[in-house]
Amino acid sequence: MGTSERKEREKERKKAMMLEAAEKVILEKGLDQLNMDEVASRAEVSKGSLYLYFKNKTELVLGICEKASKLFAEEASKVLTKNLPGIELVVMLGQSFLNFVREHPEYFRSMKFFDNLKESEALADSEYIVRCQDNIQNSFTCMVRAIQIGMQDGSINDDYDPRELAVLLWGTSDGIVNLAYMQQNCPHYELMQDHQISLESVFENYIKLIGGGIATDGKKNKKINDS
Fold first, then answer.
1. Residues 195, 188: contact at Cβ < 8 Å?
2. Which residues, in sequence order, are bridge partners of residue 156?
3. Which of 52, 82, 136, 177 has its CA 20 to 30 A from that of 189?
4. CA angle 216, 218, 224 (to 5 degrees)
5. How far apart are CA 21 and CA 101, in angstroms?
6. Angstrom distances, CA of residue 51 to CA of 35, 54, 124
């Protein structure tokens, strides 16, 4: 291994340590409490070193968003390698998204932060913006492809436009996850608690509802109800 390769590996190692430290702060204290001093301390680097990699808090959160969106895009791509009817691929993608956020709520928070910044000038000179957008586009393309496969194999109703249906599924699933992980003190969440409605049950029934709604008659009562 050459000197340049060793330096690049060391650079990536330090960057990963900084991101992991930031993720822990977000997970423990919330996104609003994230600050550069604490991240540097937890990563055991100087504040100056941290600023060499991330010039401000926004860049740091976008770095987490890039990592998160890349990981999920990879998970979505794996789903498409399975030899299954399209309707089952769509259900698996939905389950993968919900499980991903359930396991990594700090990633979801960083991705929502990215969404809120899209119209901001703060993104204009960020090196992470294009990477985040590309990763998110790749995940969306996986959903479109799964729907197209379903329309081709007859498991999904082909009355829909695949891209419009993907947007619908993307938006509604994001809303369910937002309710569960971003708004735990909102009236809807308190209502669920009052009526003893579990989040797991909501997730499962959401998948069944969406899957049953887009499936052809021959697939509605087979795999969807078992998912």
1. no
2. 215
3. 136
4. 75
5. 19
6. 12, 5, 18
Report the 10 Å Cβ neighbour count for 160. 15
Tokens standing for residue 202: 């909501």
Give the burial class of 216: count Cβ atoms within 10 A of its Cβ; 0-12 exposed, 13-18 middle, 19 or more buried: middle
Question: What pLDDT, in 10s, does the model give residues 122-137?
Answer: 555 677 888 998 999 9
The long-range contacts involving 132-138, CB below 8 angstroms and separated by at least 24 positions, are 132/62, 132/65, 132/66, 132/69, 135/66, 135/69, 135/70, 135/72, 135/73, 136/69, 136/73, 138/73, 138/76, 138/77
pTM for this structure? 0.79
Structure tokens at 84: 């299954």
Could you tell me the domains of the chain? 1-54 (1.10.10.60), 57-226 (1.10.357.10)
> For residue 138, how many other CB atoms are within 10 A of its CB?
16
CA atoms of 43 and 53, how far apart (whole Å): 13
pLDDT tens for residues 189-204? 566 667 676 767 777 7
Collapsing DSSP to helix, strand or coil, 81 comes out as coil
